[in-house]
């Protein structure tokens, strides 16, 4: 179900929930370099006049690039990838902060993601930054040079090799074992590089942003509370589980105190000036499955190991309880003593962002996605209503309400399913999913955990054994039972029949109240699951579609507390020749005041610029969509207008450095600065040595389907942001601006 431009224009004008049409500012720019350089073409002139920038040219031929279809094969036959943030002519960027910079009594972390800029006055305020995970190759290569410390990487690597694929259960090692101390060293430094950071910044008269290093600057790390007493707090029903002194599984003995936060990916900012940070892939660090009473599995279930794609099992050596991670964390950047609160009514799952609706006289609504294949879209609705959207007391509304999961119907309607004890057990059949499998709570509730179901007949048996969610979970009080359900939210939602989707990532609210959601990838996973194939289809009805979608949801009556909604596909990723808009794997969203959509992409780093000399592999089969992502180049930034002559199109605004992902875009109030994170440069190939590059071949398609061969020059590794030979790549936050001082949107 893809929306073409003609359908999109009809959609914009239909119904009470349509986006209000605001004319884009009419300002042209000329330029060559990385921008499209087609002379005397009316289509390009129209685009330049309607948009505030001249789109840059990427490696992928686009339907709206203004190039005659018969000439695309010539114009795109050569392409050079650069290890830099590439922007339209007339735009520039500056580095605001990089990995290793001082922040309070700690340092700026690694793999910066979501950004929030809460302004205290014009051109001044608090920049809150998430730090997500460790990219093992460049982090190990660069740690000593950037941080100034040595870590026992070689010794631990030898021990890991001897231990084999199972990793090392460092938690079980005696404290006297030197290996345990060495693993603690590495794990502690890695966890310090994760979490949340608050830095104070202001813009100087020369237009450059500078650090103020004020008293509010601080780090909330993966080890906060471990040694410094800066524990995180918690609210909601799961707190009763944290306070248990005995149960089926592992209990850390800390009660409702929580050590640290990590895997902090996307987030959201409230109207009252607090920031929410999403704990996403916590399953890489601590056990994800839990027992029927909500208690954790033993730390030994997630061992310590280092792989090419990450440093994992970081919670093992410290005995962290898995049920305390996978939450939304709220921080007040203005309060130097606030080290975060985890609100358990929002559910425990692989959180990716939060869209916030706080309308006067209505209930508070929080929307968040579980970023996994087969993950769900969720909504929390408060019991009480909003009196003043800017009142910081609104945070207390998150202590009482209900969590719902979205049920998408193929006809464009949907409903919200409550995750509570009396909700009927009614899982979707495995056969309707793209991967023909669904995960459910293990039928042996004494063992806890989960199981894979691939046979439709097993669903009937499951429903006979468990009638309601309350039959699947245990609690001596209603609050404990609700807490156990929330701790196991993803699998409880599967059991309740909430729709399995295509990796829901960002959730953002448009000015008119519409919710936009990015679904990054429709490919299945043999372990996690896959989307409902009746809902998530490619442009031609394909049940497997790697490239993703952006979906728009309108609550019935435009009421954030509504129990039903309408949904439609706003944009579809993929090659234009196959019906897509030219991008792959949309991730973070940003909606400007005019309702226009900005999105960044999240293609796996190992797919960037992967050579595609033929669309037929060595076995004579078509190259898989996942590998075809090499055609799209580096991860990118896109602008999708929702009004004016270019509504319904996607325009390329920027590219990131090698192996990186551009994340967490956030505008300043005057729209003159776009803050954005460049995450994991050099993730696959590490430090670029002696400016190395290689020439690769790509079997491309013009927008009309004509095939041609592209020769592409591709740097190997990264030296960004210094761009100096052999220098380490460093994740960094940048500020993008127009060189003429104008607004970006």
Describe the structure.
The protein is an alpha+beta fold and about 750 residues long. The protein has one domain (about 5-20, about 40-90, about 110-115, about 120-135, about 195-240, about 275-280, about 325-410, about 415-435, about 450-740). Helix content is about 15%, strand content about 30%. It contains 12 helices and 36 strands. α5 packs across α6 (about 180-190). The radius of gyration is 25 Å and the shape is globular. The model is unreliable at about 1-50 (pLDDT under 50).
SSE-based structural type: alpha+beta
Number of helices: 12
- Average pLDDT works out at 93
CA-based shape: globular
Characteristic key phrases:
alpha+beta, five-stranded antiparallel sheet, single chain, 745 residues, nine-stranded antiparallel sheet
Q: How would the blueprint of this fold be written?
A:
Layout: H1 5-12, H2 42-50, H3 72-75, E1 78-80, E2 91-98, E3 102-103, E4 106-107, E5 112-121, E6 124-131, H4 136-147, H5 153-163, H6 178-192, E7 195-203, E8 209-211, E9 218-221, E10 233-235, H7 239-242, E11 264-269, E12 275-279, E13 305-307, E14 310-312, E15 328-331, E16 341-343, E17 351-357, E18 363-370, E19 377-385, E20 401-408, E21 413-418, E22 438-441, E23 450-453, H8 456-465, H9 469-472, H10 478-487, H11 489-496, E24 504-509, E25 515-519, E26 549-555, E27 564-572, E28 586-591, E29 597-601, H12 625-628, E30 636-640, E31 651-655, E32 661-667, E33 674-679, E34 693-701, E35 707-715, E36 732-738
Helix pairs in contact: 5-6
